[in-house]
Amino acid sequence: MKVLVPVKRVIDYNVKARVKADQTGVDLANVKMSMNPFDEIAVEEAVRLKEGKEHHAAGTAAEIVVVSIGVTQAQETIRTALAMGADRGILIQSDADLEPLAIAKLLKAVVEEEKPDLVLMGKQSIDGDNNAVGQMLAALLDWPQATFASKVVIGDGKATVTREVDGGLQTLAATLPAVVTVDLRLNTPRYASLPNIMKAKKKEIAVKAVADYGVDVADRLKVLKVTAPATRSAGIKVADAAELVSKLKTAGAL
Amino acid sequence: MAVLVIADHDGSTVRDTTNKTVTAATAIGGDVDILVVGQGAKAAADAAAKIAGVRKVLLAESAGLGHTLAEAVEATVIALAPGYDAILSPATMDGKNFMPRIAAKLDVAPISDIVEVVSADTFVRPIYAGNALETVQSSDAKKIITVRPTGFAAAAEGGSASVETVAGSEAPKTTFVGEELVKSDRPELGAAKIIVSGGRALGSSEEFHAVMEPLADKLGAAIGASRAAVDAGYAPNDYQVGQTGKVVAPGLYIAIGISGAIQHLAGMKDSKIIVAINKDPDAPIFQVADYGIVGDYKTVVPELMAALG
């Protein structure tokens, strides 16, 4: 089975995003960038499918292809995935910040070329927070989707996926090929070892241009402005629990 | 102009996330219809018909819709889409699951998690876990939108719309295997009016449960946790509040032994009132707290229990 894992280079989750003074976006200059945390979980699961870790049979995944759409430096993100155990990478170079619909269309073109049996990807990126690309890719391909996975079992031509839903868990069996988007509880991603980081340097990354795929990537949404949310100011310290309860009652919170 | 709202319901009643989405739909303008998808969900459709300002309720039923399978919802809504200028759903896990799929089929850019309707084509939505708000204008003829319920007031009851049955689709490539819904008397994190949240200071799983559960039960609150507490194994992962966990905005958020890392603040800073209990007076959590108590939770929480009576 071939697994395709799309990954995105985003602001590191420990860095506080700051809005630019001219309200055109978030300031990413000199900010630490990392692989989107949900994508890291997707890469980890793909590698476990290959290694036969946990409940996966060894060799469930034969090949793991990682694809990223973004700036040249997204190659570093792909290298991280290769160091974790993915086999090869594809970078579709774009200096423009493409919308989820455009990303889904590009990924559809990659899927048609690579013909994976499974697309495993993060449920959302922590910058745009759209939570849309996986579902859109599945729709464009007419594939079934299983989103927000906390457990994935591959067998009998199906992905049996336990999903995080409001109020609990739902388990679905999706006929392969399918798109599975992953949630936090699925696994804890590994740190790549130094020998594997060295090995990853020799793995292939094919660099492509958006134009190579001939899809319409025009923006549909115009960002009018990006502003900082209303800031909270520190309130007051209260002496003890009794005073707290009386303040909360006065404020109507209890 | 007409707007379709896909209801969030439990088969017999509609959740107030639906009423809040109706408010967003009304702000967009035009006639507002509600679609109830499910199986054996007539009672929910009748309940939706009582929301004020609704023109009519459409009820679509099938086995696949009974489990809210994305492909079934998508095909059902696509058949209805020509009659609407905008289609809205609350940004529940279900809504987040099927709405982008519908958008892609219509070749529309979905607009996720809006917190404000500026005009019929312009919306405000949080990005970077709420550390920034973007105002976007859509050039698509049809708008596909998920609505963050905490951003809108609930539409009142008092309507008497008609209920019509429409065709419900199936999801041929997906089978429902089972579900495991948490049977807890406590409210869900996303819907709770009060949340008590514990951090790494609690020191162990036993202590976390022993301290947090009685307090939550006394307040009728949901229980949350910081990522540090979850990573340390003190609390289950679905308790996690933060950028990579759940983003919540209850009326009252009580943080106990939580230092206030950026990634945690991103998940709760929109709460109406924040209370922090921490023995470190310099903990960053105090910078966002309306009320702070500097002290050991071991003494403060029992005192709080006593003060609540």
Description:
The complex is a heterodimer of chains A (about 250) and B (about 300). With about 250 residues, chain A is α/β, with parallel strands linked by helices. Chain A contains 6 helices and 13 strands. Chain A has a 9-stranded mixed sheet, with helices on both faces. Chain A has a two-stranded antiparallel ribbon with strand order 2-3. In chain A, α2 packs across α5 and α3 crosses α4 (about 135-140). By secondary structure, chain B is of the alpha/beta class. Helices cover about 30% and strands about 30% of the residues of chain B. Chain B has 9 helices and 16 strands. Chain B has helices at about 15-30, 40-50, 65, 70-80, 95-105, 205-220, 225-230, 260-270, 295-309, and strands spanning about 1-5, 30-40, 55-60, 85-90, 110-115, 115-120, 120-125, 130-140, 145, 160-165, 175-180, 195-200, 220-225, 250-255, 275-280, 290-295. In chain B, α6 packs parallel to α9 (about 295-309). The mean pLDDT of chain B is about 95. Chains A and B meet through α3, α4, β7, β8 and β9 of A and α4, α5, β5, β7 and β8 of B. β13 (about 235) of chain A pairs parallel with β16 (about 290-295) of chain B.
